[in-house]
């Protein structure tokens, strides 16, 4: 089976969100690896995307073959190939699939070179993935990303709320001191679309604005919408993914009003969340307008 056909089959299973039996999956990956020198950038990125989408493993041998070929033809990767590959490795890291340093450097260099053609999803996936990988971002790429964000009408005309929240969260996690023009473009989008954000988007934006020291009208409105979303999702609101948002609230100097404390009580009183926040130097009692009410709710639970 040629690499092209194997890659197309893997992609199709990913698109269908259906993982085949292990024997067939291994056979397809094996066929791709045996003919890897005829695989192009699309074949490689699609195969990695499928593995990550289906949470399916890649053997060390198959992954090594894909990485070797990707490094050899990295300059042929288009924006979607680059962002999908980085996204896939960000997802596959939980399965112990490392992104080799030479390939990481090559993909970042290619992302910088192609940044002018990156669409919203490419930008947000690339930044989010690098942040999740914890590998840092090359300064030239960080500058290219900010330049793209600052282009007139790019963010406002093509980004969805999740694109903005993922991008800002990723830049904050990567320690990038975001340029004023790029940040202003993102805030202009948020000002128009804050009501469309879900609680995860709000959490990510609050974290980013907190890290960037950006307290203003957008932060205040995001905070109010965050509280409303938290109330609507109670008690299904998970503690793990709101820790960033709570840290952002602390960094922004905001406080959960007394009438909203109960909506977040199961999160604020969670030992796991408290432990995460303590590790970040955040005291839960400083997040609320009435520590006494929080204590009362904690004792009741």
Low-confidence residue ranges: none
The count of DSSP E runs of length 2 or more, i.e. the number of strands, is 0
Biggest β-sheet: count, sense, barrel? none
Radius of gyration using CA atoms only: 21 Å
Give helix % range: 55-70%
The average pLDDT is 93
Share of residues in strands: under 5%
Q: What string, H for helix and E for strand, traces the elements in order? A: HHHHHHHHHHHHHHHHH
* Principal-axis shape: globular
Number of helical segments? 17
Give the terminus-to-terminus CA distance. Answer: 60 Å
Pairing-aware structural class of the strands and helices?
A: mainly alpha
Could you explain how this protein is built, in words?
There is one protein chain. The protein is mainly alpha-helical and 301 residues long. Helix content is 67%, strand content 0%. It contains 17 helices and no strands. The longest helix has 17 residues, at 217-233. It is globular and about 65 Å long. The N and C termini lie far apart (60 Å). The model has no long low-confidence stretch (mean pLDDT 93).
